[in-house]
Amino acid sequence: MSDFVDRVTVHVKGGDGGNGSAGIRREKFKPLAGPNGGNGGDGGSVVFVADRNATSLLDYRFMPHRTAGNGTMGLGDNKDGTKGRDLVLPVPCGTVVFEAKGPAGASKKPGEELADLRHEGDRYVVARGGAGGLGNIALANKTRRAPGFALLGEPGEERDVILELKSIADVALVGFPSAGKSSLIAAMSAAKPKIADYPFTTLVPNLGVVMAGDARYTIADVPGLIPGASEGKGLGLEFLRHIERTEIIAHVIDCATLEPGRDPVSDYHALEHELAQYADRLELPLGAIPIPERPRIVILNKVDVPEAKELAEFVRPEFERMGLKVFEVSTASHEGLKQLNFALAAMVADMRQEVARREQAEEEARVVIKPLEQRRRRPAAGDAPADFTIEREEGRDGEFWFTVTGRKPERWVLQTNFDNDEAVGYLADRLAKLGVEDELRRKGARPGDEVRIGRGDRAVSFDWDPTIAAGAEMLDGTQLGHRGQDLRLTEDDGRARRRTNAERRREYHEMMDARAAVREAMMAERRAGHWSDPSVDDDRHDERSLFGRGEA
Question: Known binder of ligand: residue 82?
């Protein structure tokens, strides 16, 4: 089984944000001295980084699920939670990140391209961590001085992506099956590809590092191409993408083939036809040279065979008339490999300078258009809200509901602790201020209708019950109060405010007088002997007394 993996589906999830704290500062003689709950920490993000030391996507085949660290919750004494640790995942240079498309449980297909990590150090945040929830000290204001709730942390972003490796090699060896490409890369580098005497021996691309004096370049052995490879025949379509990033295309032509109807010139034109068909469907990255414009060389292989040597000398002038550089080599006797090595090194150096020049020119020519800042205005009566949308939906059984979608409402719902009445009221105030209730009325919603905020698993459903406390029905726009209440701050709670010294003295004297009255009553009972003689009837009106003499 080969250990080369060039396409894999990865499930990534950012860390969840920590919950905020609803702590209250407590001091001597100040049971409720004010809020001091800190904010929750943000969740960590999942980041792909192009790393030269990474050579394959094999690790993601066996471990496709990757999750970043969660943020910790806030604490009292105004202590914020810690941020979750980012998960940095190294990928080989030349990795392209696609959005995974397809139903759940089925194989995914590449969708929109998200990032192209071509150079070492390129980074892409594929799944952002959730924001930490605000503590009650951040929610306090002049009307809500001591919030009894805090916001929950947001869940991290979760998605499926496809990683596709498009090898970044300087030279690509293309040719028919059994043309000697694997033997050539084994002779020129330290790579050890599989070599056999049958077609399609190479099932995965092989990469080799070649040294020519002080120069260093990489060479890729692409699986054998056949006519129709650009349409999916053979193995060519699966691995043609590995020549997209190469700078030089080297045609390896078998001069010793015995197949009828084949010769070096027809093989070259057949391969060029497949490359042209494939190049028409490519979207090249910034500064890349189109495949038809990349330099070609022709390598006439197996010249150690006498008949192949004669054929190579016969077709060489015809290739040179096309403006191509021709090299006659033999991987068995190493004839011509030294000249080929240094010639490729010189071509690679020139092409690297050309690619750098094109990338610099594209960057300078790129124009960034930034729109002018517009002052936000209050939408008119007939305008649709910009921060959310409301749709009336109906099921098959005749039931209907109103679905509210938008970044702000969906985010606020995730931050709300529905076990806290004050937190639910805070959510209602925010939705009313945003204009959700006004838009629901305009859509024909009535109290008691079902309203859903968001879609999918994170949707929240409730019966719409607008109240005047939220300020939605006030004609003059004045808000009377907030929905929900903090029981600690109600009037009947003794902790709602600090007592004055006069009140403390009065309560103290009342307590001492009550204790004195109880002591006097107990002493009177003692003197009467009620505690010493059990035969004494303590209560003549009690039928359950010792003698049972209930008197009217």
Answer: no
Asked if residue 232 belongs to a known ligand binding site, the reply is no
Q: Does residue 179 have a known ligand-binding role?
A: yes
HSE value, Cβ hemisphere, 13 Å, CA-based, for 25: 15
Alpha-carbon distance of 416 to 413, in angstroms, equals: 5
The reply, when asked if residue 30 is annotated as ligand binding, is no
Q: Quote the pLDDT of residue 89.
A: 95
**Residue 178 assigned as binding residue:** yes
For residue 105, say whether it is annotated as part of any ligand binding site: no
Residue 143 has pLDDT above 90, yes or no: no
Q: Per the annotation, does 175 bind a ligand?
A: yes
pLDDT at position 378 is 53
275 labelled as ligand-binding?
no
Q: Are 218 and 169 spatial neighbours (Cβ–Cβ below 8 Å)?
A: yes
Rounded Cα distance, 491 and 497, in Å: 9
What is the per-residue pLDDT for 132? Answer: 94
Residue 203 assigned ligand-binding role: yes
121 marked as binding residue: no
Confirm or deny that 478 is annotated as ligand binding: no
- Report the run of H or E that residue 254 belongs to, with start and end: strand 248-254
Residue 290 labeled ligand binder: no
CA distance 269 to 412: 62
Cα(327)–Cα(266) distance, rounded to whole angstroms? Answer: 18
Residue 2 has pLDDT above 70, yes or no: no
Cα–Cα dist 335/327, whole Å: 10
Residue 202 annotated in ligand binding? yes
189 marked among binding-site residues: no
Strand ordering across the sheet containing 123-127: 87-91, 46-50, 123-127
Q: Is 326 annotated as a binding residue?
A: no
- 3-state SS, 363-378, equals HHHCCCCCCCCCCCCC
Question: Rounded to 5 degrees, what angle do the CA atoms 352, 358, 361 make?
Answer: 140
> For the ranges 124-138, 178-192, 343-357, 397-411, which has the lowest average pLDDT?
178-192
Query: Does residue 109 contact residue 175 with C-beta atoms inside 8 Å?
Result: no
More confident residue, 228 or 423: 423
Q: Which residue in the block uniquely carries the two structure tokens 């969708």? A: 111
Q: Any binding-site annotation on 98? A: no
Number of H-type helices and E-type strands within the chain: 11, 18
> Is beta strand 206-212 parallel, antiparallel or unpaired with respect to 171-174?
unpaired
Give the mean pLDDT of the chain: 78
Structure tokens at 403: 């679905």
The values of phi and psi at residue 67, to 5°, are: -135, 135
pLDDT for 502: 83
3-state SS string for 419-436: CCHHHHHHHHHHHHHHCH
Q: Is the pLDDT of residue 497 over 60?
A: no
Per the annotation, does 197 bind a ligand? Answer: no
Nearest to 347 by CA among 291, 297, 391: 297
pLDDT tens-digit series, residues 285-337:
555 677 778 888 899 888 888 888 888 888 899 988 888 899 998 888 888 88
Asked if residue 331 belongs to a known ligand binding site, the reply is yes
Confirm or deny that 330 is annotated as ligand binding. Answer: yes
Which residues have a Cβ under 8 Å from the Cβ of 310 and sit 6 or more positions away? none
29 annotated among ligand-binding-site residues: no
